[in-house]
Amino acid sequence: MASSTYSFKDVQAAITGPGGVINLGSGSGAAEEGLAIDSSTEIDNMLIGADGLGQHSLSADRSGRVTVRLLKTSPTNALLSLMFNFQTSSAAQHGQNTITIVDSNRGDVITCTQVAFAKAPSIAYGKEAGMLEWDFTAVQINRTLGGL
């Protein structure tokens, strides 16, 4: 049974693909906002007819976006920058990553496949260092939350 306590310290995450394997979880220099996984579309489309009867259409789309937020001073930014440059230099390297996220205490397992860098992070220089947001798109995201 999964614990009712959460800590980012229990989150192991990594991107694996052409150019290396990079830690994105605890120990990566993650910003307070950490990681986010979002679906691209709704899984259901409901349509109501003129007479009030309706239907549901279940979409097979399991695509989505993964956002990794790192402190500006995190050494992981340099590793991701090198991987980004390598993978965007040729279509042969593009879209071949896997991102795996595991919360060992909660029992969550999220696997994202056919992952590509969506864009380079925006960079700002100001009073405070801030963070960098790395955005990825995934063709397939499989989620299992709270292992039994």
**Broad shape:** globular
- Poorly predicted ranges (pLDDT <50, ≥5 residues)? none
Domain count: 1
Query: Tally the helices: what do you get?
Result: 1
Percent of residues in helices comes to under 10%
Determine the oligomeric state from the structure.
Answer: single chain
Total strand count, please?
Answer: 9
| Run of helices and strands | EEEEEEHEEE
Major pleated sheet: 7 strands, antiparallel
Strand order of the largest sheet: 2-1-7-8-9-6-3
What is the level 1 CATH name?
Mainly Beta
Overall average pLDDT: 95
CA-CA gap between termini: 5 Å
Determine the structural class based on helices, strands and strand pairing: mainly beta
What does this structure look like?
- The model has no long low-confidence stretch (mean pLDDT 95).
- It is built from one helix and nine strands, in the order ββββββαβββ.
- 22% of the residues are buried.
- Strand 1 and strand 2 (20-23) form a beta hairpin.
- The protein has one domain: Pnp Oxidase, Chain A (Roll), CATH 2.30.110.
- The strands form two sheets. A seven-stranded antiparallel beta sheet has the order 2-1-7-8-9-6-3, with helices on one face. A two-stranded antiparallel sheet has the order 4-5.
- The chain has 148 residues and is mainly beta.
- The longest helix is centred in the middle third of the chain and has 12 residues, at 76-87.
- It starts with 10 loop residues before the first strand and ends with a strand.
